[in-house]
Amino acid sequence: MGRRIAIFGNSGSGKSTLARRIGAVLDLPVTHLDQLYWRPGWVPAPPDEFRSAVAAAARTPSWVIDGNYSRTMDLRLPLADTVLFLDAPRRVSLYRVLARQVRERGQDTQAPGCISKVDAELLSWIWGWPERRTRLLDRIAEDAPSARQVLLRTPREVRALLADLH
What we know:
There is one protein chain. With about 170 residues, the protein is of the alpha/beta class. The chain has a single domain (about 5-165), classed as Rossmann fold. About 50% of the residues lie in helices and about 15% in strands. The protein is built from eight helices and seven strands. The strands form two sheets. Strands 2-5-1-6-7 form a five-stranded parallel β-sheet, sandwiched between helices. A two-stranded antiparallel sheet has the order 3-4. A hairpin with a 3-residue loop joins strand 3 and strand 4. The two termini are about 20 Å apart. This is DNA topology modulation protein. It comes from Amycolatopsis ultiminotia.
């Protein structure tokens, strides 16, 4: 049986970067839920299409899937053997999102046809993270009780995890 690794965390916490790194080290396919959810111009996918796409990715024998999207956690968590939770402080997430905006200005970022942007909705999401954090951790504990669950708070902890994968 393959590896199935789910990655959760606030916007700007490093989910996509960690997913790519783990995918490269373990030679696993990587699915970024933002790429399944967003259509050009930041238009959300129809809910049934999105769930179908997530279900298809989760049914494969091995994967790294990053993204929160609570409406699809039931498709991923029961199948995950490892759940990584990036718990960066809000100020770090805000800094990373702003740095990404500068670095990727005018480029497609989260999905094809979605030009990099930082707006009030994204900033509000990041700032309101502590309220959602507890609910998400509870949901992970409930829906993935047999999965290895790892809370990563610092870049040092992320580097140690990656080193342990080699």
